[in-house]
What we know:
The protein is mainly α. The chain has two domains: 7-39, no CATH class; 48-89. Helices cover 71% and strands 0% of the residues. The protein has four helices and no strands. It has helices at residues 7-17, 23-39, 48-66, 73-89. It is extended, with a radius of gyration of 19 Å.
Amino acid sequence: MQIELNAEQQRILERATKDGTSVEEVLDQAFAVIEHELDSDWLSELPPEELEAIEAHIEEGCAQADRGELYTPEEVKRMMAERKAQRQVA
């Protein structure tokens, strides 16, 4: 079987094989992750209180969006960068 990769997929594959890992090994790992995701219903595995908290956050976000309280793309990028920096410090 032959497949064509777009530029981003090719870049990712090159990064993943840079340490000597074969393309086949990288694809095996990728397919294992995909299979796990397909077989996993992680929401059903959550305790009821966590599921309720997630639902509350979603409802709150929808209400904020309905009121027009949205972030600009620049604000989102800044917040994500701050969170990433905080995780790296911890």
